[in-house]
Amino acid sequence: MKLATWNINSLKVRLPQVLDWLAANPVDALCLQELKLPDEKFPLEAFTEIGYQANWAGQKTYNGVAVITRGAGTDVQRNLPAYDDHQQRIIATTLDSPMGDIRVISAYCPNGQSIGSDKYEYKLEWFKALRSWLRDELQRYPRLAILGDYNVAPKDEDVHDPLKWIGDVLVSEPEREAFGSLLELGLSDAFRQFEQEEKSFTWWDYRRYAFRRNAGLRIDHVLLSQALQPYCTACVIDKAPRANEQPSDHVPVIATLDFAAALA
DNA sequence: ATGGTAGACCATCTA
């Protein structure tokens, strides 16, 4: 089973790239962020034509998340139930697997804009609400994967130039603590369970030739519950789509779960 | 210190 996440920064612009990517990477679930389109503009047919189903929470202009899946999802949940928020940042669905139900969540965590701004306070509040919801969700669904754009580089090794970024949004200590508070629930950062190349990033600013200079951050993550982590055999970043014409500023992250040994 | 680019949308906002 393969699970992936990709912040595509406008599904309208990136739809052809997403379809191409799925053809080349037929994952079981692809979590998308920053759809930037309202519910009624979601291109469902484009996905059904290639054998996928979809659940989404759209919004005009900003935000918006989706989970593209091979099978039909059940128990679909939009947004954080106990956090009143018009920004569409969460969609959750339950997939069938040889191990039983697996909860898959696509998350677009707030950016925070700048330290001390209203948006930064909102980001920290939102993470608290996310943590609280995830605690309950893990009780209901021990096999849980939450994938998305967390807008947090967890450690200095996830930052191209840590000195330049000290105290900045996306790397500040309160944000890293917020991210760490999710790990305290028993979630693990799948990417760091494996040997990885140094300077592995998932996002590069469009400006100043950041991709060419590999001036990036690792802010897109796959978090796996304790029940799922033992089955994860790989977690990789696919940098290829950043070289496309009109690329997203983020690239996909893919986690592989292998249940064969457990079922043998 | 500012601005650089991209996307949504036609003046800025968000990232």
From TrEMBL:
Any GO BP annotation: DNA repair
Site (Important for catalytic activity) residue list: D220
Classification via Gene3D superfamilies: Endonuclease/exonuclease/phosphatase
Keywords from the named record: Hydrolase, Magnesium, Manganese, Metal-binding
Site (Interaction with DNA substrate): H250
Residues at which Mg(2+) binds: N7, E34, D149, N151, D249, H250
GO MF entries: DNA binding; double-stranded DNA 3'-5' DNA exonuclease activity; endonuclease activity; metal ion binding
Domain of life: Bacteria
Family indicated by similarity: Belongs to the DNA repair enzymes AP/ExoA family.
Protein's recorded name: Exodeoxyribonuclease-3
Naturally occurring in which organism (per UniProt): Pollutimonas bauzanensis
Taxonomic lineage from the root: Bacteria, Pseudomonadati, Pseudomonadota, Betaproteobacteria, Burkholderiales
